[in-house]
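Dock pyridoxal-5'-phosphate; give full complex structure.
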Amino acid sequence: MGKYAFIDQALDDLRKQGLYNTIRTIESSVGAWVIVEGKRALNMCSNNYLGFANDERLCTAAKDAIDGYGVGPGAVRSIAGTMSLHIELEKKLAAFKGTEAALSVQSGLNTNLATIPLLMGRDDVIFTDELNHASIIDGCRLTKAKRVIFPHRDADALRVLLEENKDIAKKLIVTDGVFSMDGDLAPLPEIVAAAEEYDAMVMVDDAHGEGVLGSHGRGIVDHFGLHGRVDIEAGTMSKAFGVMGGYVAGSADIVDYLRQRARPFLFSSAATPPDVAACIAAIDILQETDAPVRKLWSNADYFKKKMTALGFDTGHSDTPITPVMLGEAETAWNFSKRLFEEGVFATAIAFPTVPQGKARIRVMLSAAHSVSDLDFALEKFAQVGRELGVI
Ligand SMILES: Cc1ncc(COP(=O)(O)O)c(C=O)c1O
């Protein structure tokens, strides 16, 4: 037995359980259509909500930034200085989100690793929704704080748990804004009301809300009119904004503290100049127009209505995330494989990402899709659905 036998064993187990993931290779930019392993396919699974991932304006901004600033930031910002581009992005993000300040970090995942362990310590308590994203879970794991998991979207249960822990002085409630596998929303107004009653901080991960919810895609806080009542908004530039990177938006004090002490900020280099410039271009577009957000929603409404009419179960999503519920993992894998053969790229999602027996294809609508793209997808979903006895 070699020293890597445990890895062979783990990989074997994954294959036996049907959980081994073979990732497809994309050979084009990410738009409504992509070239996947030599084949042109309709892209129904990326988080490119607004079609910005290959938008000409973002690409031009990125190229110009390379001409002006090169390709790399050189080192971490606190040691090697911060580029004016990063400062500009942070100012624009804060203005867009309606907060005092914002801090750019390298990814959405890093926002949670930066913020939660910095704010919470051994004597504190974190209340976290049972279906929160893995990066929130990891952020909580990096602290020594007590963790209290509340039932999914259950503000009444949260209130009971707050009462039970009311003697702990520092409290943080953390939740996804939009839950990525089902597209449902956190009951943020109820969570904020409970937090105010118990003097707890509230942090929302708006990864799937920004660019999607609120005026011009300002996110879930704007959607619910909760400006000034949510302490921390964490977000990503890798979904609706079409690029890469993360940010934390909140009060000037919180952002200043993060800039002084957050470990991903202090110990990992900054986002690259072309990434940052493309993010700035994305925000500029959204400040100017909400047309891409409206297009996204009209595409989502169109697709969901037609899928329901065809007899598909599309879950309980409140957003353009459209889970096509298929039950067993095998059905979902077969469905995805047949769709791909028919020219539609839509990945199956099964346990452990979603519960056993709740495998699905998660369709991600985009403003990049035309109505004829959606009709093509609907025709193929109907064809494969009938073939596999799903509808
Ligand atoms: C809720 C949530 N938070 C954070 C992330 C991570 O974002 P990023 O890809 O920018 O690291 C994701 C992406 O999967 C997410 O869905």
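Observed: The CA atoms of residues 216 and 290 lie 5 Å apart.
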